[in-house]
Structure formats: C-alpha cells, structure tokens
From TrEMBL:
Keyword Disulfide bond: no
Protein name: Bifunctional polymyxin resistance protein ArnA
InterPro entries, per the entry: Formyl_trans_C, Formyl_transf_N, Formyl_transf_N_sf, Formyl_transferase-like_C_sf
Domain Formyl transferase N-terminal: 3-168
PANTHER family: METHIONYL-TRNA FORMYLTRANSFERASE, METHIONYL-TRNA FORMYLTRANSFERASE, MITOCHONDRIAL
Molecular function GO terms recorded: methionyl-tRNA formyltransferase activity; oxidoreductase activity
An example Gene Ontology CC term for this record: cytosol
Organism: Clostridium botulinum (strain Okra / Type B1)
Record-listed E.C. numbers: 1.1.1.-, 2.1.2.-
Position of the signal peptide: none
Length: 295
C-alpha cells in the first residue's frame, strides 16, 4: 500500500514515525520548511531523509505542482495528519483509498478549530481522537478509527497533547494493517450530534479577572506551551501566564474587587478573581507586582 504523507507539526512527526515503524510504505512526504502559523511546527526533513523518502515542500497544499507531484507517486492512500488547511477535490480524488485525516475529538461532536484548546478552556472531562476519510467539508467524513480519552483535572495543553499523540500511535498500530489487508470498516457520522468550534483569536486568550477562578485556570491550562499562552494587560503591556494554581485561604475576600493583588508570596502574586484567588506561578515578562495593585 503506497502512502503519501502530509503534515507540518509535532503530531505529524510522531504519526509518521509510527507508520514507518509499522512497515507502512511511505513513498512521499509533503511538508513545510517553516510555519509562522503553527507554534508546534516540526520539520519532517530529518525523518524523511533518514528513511530515504522523497520530500516536497509547499506553501499551499492545493497548488498544481503539489497535485502533480502526488499523482506521480501513484499513492493507494494519502495520510494528512496535522494540517489545518482544507484539501481540495483535486487531491482528495487522487488515491483509490482516499485521504485519511484526523481530529482530536469524538466526531461528529466538536468539529472545527483548536480542539485541544477548546476542550480544556471549556472544562470538558473527555475528548478523543478520530481518524476519518476526508471530503470537501471539514471533519465530516466516514470514521476509520475512534477512541475516547479522559481529561484529568491536572491536564494542560502539553499533557493532553502528549496523551493524544500516544493514543494516535495506538490507533495507527491497529488500523494500518487493516488498511493494508483491506479488512477495515468505515462508520458514517451522525449529523444530528454534530457541532463545530470556531476559530480562536488572540482576544480569546485575554484574561478578564471578573471571570470565575475555574474559567481563568482552564484558559491558562488550555493555552500553555506549546501554544501562545493566556494573557492579561498591565500598564500597557501584555503579560503571558504559563502556569497558575488556585490559592486556598482561610480569609474571606468576598468584598475585594476582581483583579486586585491581595498579597505576594515570594515573587508569586495572589490575585482576586470573581469568586476566589489564584496564584500566578510562571509568567513572562517577570514583572514585579505589589500587594494592592490592580491588574
């Protein structure tokens, strides 16, 4: 089974490595030399060269030269893991077995953008990984493989990202031989269960201290590394928070306004939110905040 592989992020590298390890015949890789749009960008050149796989770099996957390059590889199937750009019919129709994509949710629920970030920001307790046959509409195709994943209270973007990577590798080990041997099944998505998450912008990551403590902590966990980080504005500059915790205190601060620094422990400010306190553990730039200041 001849495979053409498309991807540009760390997840793409991990899945490609797993496919190669499990004897997948990868005849070509399409990737980017760099990407300002992907904070988790990963160069697939080293793994491709190490395994003597032809590589082609692209800016727009749907350009004619990429289409012709893929056609020349005569793929039986195309894997597209870790690319947010929609693929047009000219590529979707090249391989007899189609194009397999993936989405970090339990499709048809939570189609759309930024699935790891939204799952954590919304405080969901479960997510998943779905591999599916791509078509002209995003995240709507027939399901090849799907598994659920519990989100723990201490999970953040990095830990959940790692869990999803591990889950995807388990799924690849299961479905790759089924694809090779033509023993796989495809399941149609139930449109009645579908919703779609919108694209996020920078303003979605800006903290309003009138939010609940849980909502603020969820936002910080959702946007920590490898993502850009949750922010608050202080004296005309944006401060990025990478880690924070709920601060337990016997004293009642119900009469204190949200955004006030009620105390500083070491160099970690304790800030009043709508309903309780949080401790800012890791943030940058590491400004000095004083008790009594407002953020």
């Amino acid at each position: 089974m001849r495979i053409v592989y498309i991807g540009v992020v760390e997840f793409s590298h991990i899945c490609l490595e797993e496919i190669i390890k499990n004897k997948g015949e990868v005849v070509g890789v399409l990737t980017k030399k760099r990407s300002k749009y992907n904070s988790d960008f990963c160069d697939l050149t080293p793994i491709s060269e190490k395994n003597n796989i032809d590589i082609k770099y692209f800016d727009n996957i749907n350009d004619n030269e990429n289409i012709e390059w893929i056609k020349a590889k005569k793929p039986d199937i195309i894997f597209c893991f870790g690319l947010s750009q929609l693929i047009k019919d000219e590529i979707l129709n090249i391989a007899p077995m189609g194009v397999i994509g993936c989405h970090d949710t339990m499709l048809p629920q939570n189609r759309g953008r930024h699935p790891i970030i939204w799952a954590l920001a919304l405080g969901l307790k479960e997510t998943g990984q779905t591999f599916f046959v791509m078509n002209k509409d995003a995240d709507t195709g027939l399901i090849l493989s799907q598994r659920s994943l519990k989100i723990e209270d201490n999970d953040n973007a990095k830990t959940l990202y790692n869990k999803i990577n591990q889950l995807a590798c388990e799924q690849i080990r299961d479905f790759l031989p089924k694809l090779i041997n033509k023993t796989y099944d495809l399941i149609e998505q139930d449109k009645k269960l579908a919703n779609s998450w919108r694209k996020r912008t920078r303003k979605d990551g800006i903290i309003d201290w009138r939010m609940s403590t849980e909502a603020i902590l969820n936002l910080i966990k959702a946007l920590t590394k490898p993502y850009p980080g949750a922010e608050f504005e202080y004296n005309g500059q944006f401060i990025t928070i990478w880690e924070a915790t709920k601060y337990e205190c016997d004293k009642c601060y119900n009469n204190i306004e949200p955004g006030k620094v009620v105390k500083v422990i070491g160099d970690c400010p304790i800030v009043k939110c709508y309903d309780s306190l949080i401790k800012l553990v890791e943030y940058e730039p590491r400004i000095t905040l004083k008790e009594g200041e407002y953020l």
